[in-house]
Design goal:
Layout lengths: L3 E7 L4 E2 L5 E3 L5 E3 L10 E2 L6 E5 L3 E2 L5 E7 L15 H15 L5 E7 L16 E4 L3 H9 L9 H13 L7 E7 L23 H13 L3 E6 L6 H13 L10 E2 L6 H11 L3 E3 L11 E4 L2 E2 L5 E4 L3 E4 L1 H9 L4 E7 L3
Parallel strand pairs: 1-19, 8-9, 8-11, 11-12, 12-13
Antiparallel strand pairs: 1-6, 2-5, 3-4, 7-14, 9-10, 14-18, 15-16, 15-19, 17-18
Length: about 350
């Protein structure tokens, strides 16, 4: 989606800004007579209400969003839920494979694990991911998952904290997210477990896990939650709370993305919105390092909805950026005072 952005430079000295074959309309506007596109160009005396040049700068796309998958491979993922023929591990891996294949070219996927390997039961977590975020990583992710087997504990709180800290070191301007894939039974804690939990009594850590997800969101790293749990179970409720803390709950029950539901289309929408450009290059840049105002669809934006960055970039903020992403904001004009 491209946004037509006009840069209006006001108050130049007396001259005709047009070039090439033109005709002048009744209101003084120049028109091209050779069929080419021409900016709104007029001959005038310098005064602050006259537009002398209109150009269309290039939107600056954001880098692809980075989505680090935090995959639960703890021992409880070997369990089979009532009414299912496959383990929770098999079901959640299949859902991830389908999703990463669908978004392989739109998001930079990475992978880290929660839980032990080779029979080790440990509360330690990986400091760095198994696979760093990259485009077209679906095959590599699939290979890494195929070599893993569920075992050990579920240090989910520490794993989320480590994953968010890692993403924060990647200072590349890309929007960053976690995709937590789990059965909603965090351990390595000291709190009582739900009556229906399969974990050892007194080892659960639900509150700390939810708090870790909320803390990551406070750092600017939101979390999508893909879960597998029996409806109404303690784990089901924990997964819902995780989704709310992560910032992207679904609008229906369950609020997390369940492997029982079809697709993760709203995750794709959120990733696309994060990658949509709200920055625009002004070429040439402004001389005075200021802009008078910004209008969208003929209405002036609030000063809180735009920002001049340096002398050659305008960024839409808040509701203005959201409206641009939604396609309801389609005509922006940046009014620039002219250096005379």
């Amino acid at each position: 989606m491209w946004l037509a952005v006009a840069v209006a430079v006001l108050g130049c000295a007396s001259f005709a800004c047009a070039a090439g074959p033109t005709a002048v309309t009744a209101d003084g506007a120049a028109e091209a007579t050779d069929g080419s596109a021409l900016a709104d160009v007029r001959t005038f005396e310098a005064e602050p209400s006259v537009t002398c040049v209109v150009t269309t700068p290039t939107p600056i796309p954001s880098p692809p969003p980075e989505l680090l998958i935090v995959l639960d491979r703890s021992a409880s993922m070997n369990d089979v839920l009532a009414g299912s023929a496959d383990s929770k591990w098999t079901q959640i891996v299949a859902a991830l494979e389908a999703f990463t294949a669908q978004a392989d070219a739109e998001a930079a996927f990475g992978l880290t694990f929660i839980g032990g390997r080779d029979g080790q039961s440990t509360c330690q977590v990986l400091a760095a991911p198994t696979i760093a975020p990259a485009l077209h990583a679906a095959v590599a992710l699939g290979d890494a998952v195929a070599q893993s087997r569920p075992a050990g504990s579920t240090p989910l709180a520490n794993a989320v904290t480590a994953a968010a800290a890692y993403l924060a070191t990647r200072n590349n301007g890309a929007p960053k997210f976690l995709l937590l894939a789990t059965d909603g039974q965090p351990t390595c804690g000291t709190t009582p477990c739900g009556a229906d939990s399969t974990e050892a009594p007194g080892t659960c850590d639900d509150d700390a896990a939810i708090a870790a997800i909320a803390a990551a969101r406070d750092q600017g790293i939101a979390t999508f939650v893909l879960g597998v749990a029996a409806p109404g179970a303690t784990a089901d409720q924990t997964l819902g709370a995780m989704a709310v803390a992560g910032g992207y709950p679904r609008s229906q029950t369950p609020t997390y993305h369940s492997i029982a539901e079809s697709g993760m289309g709203d995750v794709l929408v959120a990733l696309a919105a994060a990658a949509s450009p709200c920055d625009f290059e002004l070429s040439p840049g402004v001389v005075t390092a200021s802009i008078s105002s910004v209008k969208a669809n003929g209405v002036a934006l609030s000063p809180s909805e735009f920002q001049l960055i340096g002398r050659d970039r305008v960024r839409l903020l808040g509701a203005a950026c959201a409206a641009y992403v939604a396609g309801t904001l389609t005509d922006v004009r940046v009014i620039v005072p002219c250096d005379v």
